[in-house]
Amino acid sequence: MKNIIEIKNLTKKFGNFTAVDHINLKVQEGEIFGFLGPNGAGKTTTISMLTTLIRPTSGTAIISGHDLTTRGVNIRAIIGVVPQLFSLFPELTAKENLAYIGKLYGMNPSQIKERSEYLLKIIDLYDHRDRIADIFSGGMKQRLSLAAGIMSNPKILFMDEPTTGLDPQSRIAMRNLTKDLNKHGITIIYTTHDMEEAEKICDRISIMDAGKIIAEGTSEELKHMISKFHKIEIEIDSPSKEIISELKELPYITSVEISGPLIIVTVKEKDDVFHKLSEFLHKKHQKLLEIRFKEPTLEEVFIQLTKEELRD
Are residues 77 and 134 in the same domain? Predict the structure, then answer.
């Protein structure tokens, strides 16, 4: 795939504070690319620069062939934005909000009517098209924001924590809508705090902290970054202290811990380890109930890379 976004040493300072610190990144055309990071990591500032809302202090980005620092007008013509907070007009109806956005993009009345009706059906708000947005639920407002963001049929859609504060059903609906848009060719830049959401929806993920990109890859690649060893969960009948001690002495095991009914062992190599452990337990007359690999979660990756301090 070709790159639709290439970020080059992008930096943003506010006085003496560096919000985004010389980041470099490439986003491939047609993918869902996730920005994951704690509060204050620089995610929203990065998105604000890429969508031309604020100017970089230094560095630039090439977005679909257009230089961020000199071709902002061209970039705005090919992108859509779904902000974290509802930013449309609460006193207008759903249909009127989309019509206003269409006019901003120079669409004629016929195009506005056709596009807005199509989108209102897609986001399941067609039956509510004549209701003012102020009385919509949080999920309905976010779906309307999504429709507004793609009113111009953009090549790239920026979604800044679009599911924050939504109930589980609305989050699932937004996630499914996002996947459907991507299937129709829209490249999506998706920022989120939700590790499960990032893992389910994003093709690749960049983890930001303190204005820097500290890791990048697929969720599986990120998991393997923090784990040079492999963990295995073993369940046996009534594990004794002697068995635990003997497991610790095995040359291919680096650590042993107890978690409820499970014995969790860490091994250097995965090859043939199930057979070795099964054979060992059989010789010790231990009935093996279950054995399985325990893969690290994306949340564990996130915590290990960004540490556990609370962020304001």
Answer: yes
